[in-house]
Amino acid sequence: MQSQITYAFSSPLSLIPRLVRLAIYLFLSLISGHVSGQNIDASVKRTIDSLISKGTTSIKEIEKVIKPFEMDTLQMDYFVKASALKNYMPGQVVGLNKLGVRYRLVSKFNKSIEKHKQALESAQISKNVDLEIYSLNMLGVIYERIDAITAALDYTYEALDLAQKQPKPSINIQQSISHSYHNIGQINRILGQYDLATQQFKKALEIEESLKNKLGLAINYQNIGECQEAQGMLEDALQTYDKAMTLNNELHYLRGKIICNNGIAHIYVHQKETQKAVNLLQNTLLDAKKHGEHTLIAAVHLTLGWALTELKEFDKAEENLRLGLELSSTYNLQRTRADAYDLLSDLWAKKGDYEKALKYFRTSLDVKSQIKNNNNVRYVYSSIIKRDNEKSLNSMNQQLRKNNTRLLVSGIVIALLSGIFYILYRQYQLKNDKKLLTLEQSMLRSQMNPHFLFNSLNSIKLYIINNEQKNAVHYLNKFSKLVRKILESSSMREIPLAEELETVELYMNIENIRFSNEIDFNVHVEEDIEVHTIRIPSLILQPFLENALWHGLSSKKGEKKIELHIYKKTKDYLDISITDNGIGREAAERIKQNKVLKRKSVGIEITKERLANFSKDLLNTFDVEFVDLYDENNEPSGTKVILHIPMT
């Protein structure tokens, strides 16, 4: 269970803008009053003041001092600002990175990226190579966590290249090299290249052993265990997990113990010791909730759901799988979502409902394709081959006179590796195709329910029956134009914003027939928005408008309004808000629960997946906010949905 882009990295030549930003940051810190130390624990304040006065430069020593409060964002924010005021750059950089880690653990990925980028800028301003490499690796980790594979690889390789250029690497830099190898291993593991991943983890292990770093050893052992499990080497994986667990217990490292127990439970299920897995997971789930990291809680729920499925305890299994899916969807954990859909597919197949099984399996494939697409695989392989080429050529240039055959051998090896990579990837595709075909053959029936098309034609038919020929022709023209635009747009990844707005207008005109033209629909576009040059994914607004119509306004009496507002708060995002004055989400949900026939719309979930896929080629990620609106009497007065679509 388990498009190439170029990223512009900061360089020391752009110091002036960074210094300006740093000055603004310090000024805001002063006027905010937070740096004064209010609400800061006195002992923490003394520890921070002592650390700053000593001017410790070792990252490891700084981390050791701040470890007791590194997960407290208030204390860490004070540490960062106090370090900045005293021009203590190592403290500022480490503190910003620790804030980034904390936000990553609670799935606030945009905030995490922001803090790590601030840390990188500060490190580059100070011209401290140790801090710069440390910050680059942290950016590699967060981008790997949100499945932005190319960005993760670029930042990690930049860190590794910079570290390996140092003639006498410090302990900090040796640690960073190990961290880089670990990041590259994780990326290969995500893409299913377990042998390559294991090679990288073993490189990291060698460094951690030389540094006698037990935490680093534990982390790499547990990752090797995951690779061994994925390759069916269950006994080897169990032994590797035991090594990691021994170290985690010595360190009292709760996160590591949760990951190891979850992995061990996987193996128990594979070995048909399923009840043993359930017993282990029930305690592990309590630990995961105590730890509070959404990724871990979701993963344990999924493993528990899988084990319960094998025991045919289907109700409990579905409950756990849906909890895992809900967490992964809420916090945009793509890999976990794919696992959830896969396991739900297996659950329904075991229950004999092959139609539902097929639906979940197809959704799983869609999510996986966003992570493991051809561009990502090609990019990673080309990066590995390019680096292997560079190393081989450097070595061969030194020994060319002694052995001219090495060039030929290296070329053959690289060609063979390329062929193997391609074959492995094709096997992955064929495996999914085979499963899809099996489910399709097992289906009892397949239904198409084009509700919108049927109801729209039915409304136009009523005009014809009532002899309202003018209205019938008018709306039939709009309907045909809308269908044509949908068909044209569906074949394109991106379209101009102007075309999307035209499609939305046509859609609302057609839907308004069914509401007896009661809907007051308005579009507001800010003056600085170039609707003909800005490009967005096609057909992303209709599901949110449909939700507003049928959940917010269909049960409302009186005035019915929908406002579509397009604006930009920052240059990096296009913001689109859809506001209705309907009955609100709580009342809509109550009505839905009371209906005999419950229709679950998947349009918004599919749109989120498409926006996630669109964001893969960009540095920033998309976000969708649902805001409940209330009047002066605190009564529900509608819903606002805000889409933050990345432009860079």
From TrEMBL:
Organism domain of life: Bacteria
PROSITE patterns referenced in this protein's UniProt entry, alphabetically: TPR
Transmembrane segments: 407-425
Occurrences of domain Signal transduction histidine kinase internal region (ranges): 440-518
Entry keywords, A to Z: Membrane, TPR repeat, Transmembrane, Transmembrane helix
Keyword Transmembrane helix found: yes
Protein name: Tetratricopeptide repeat protein
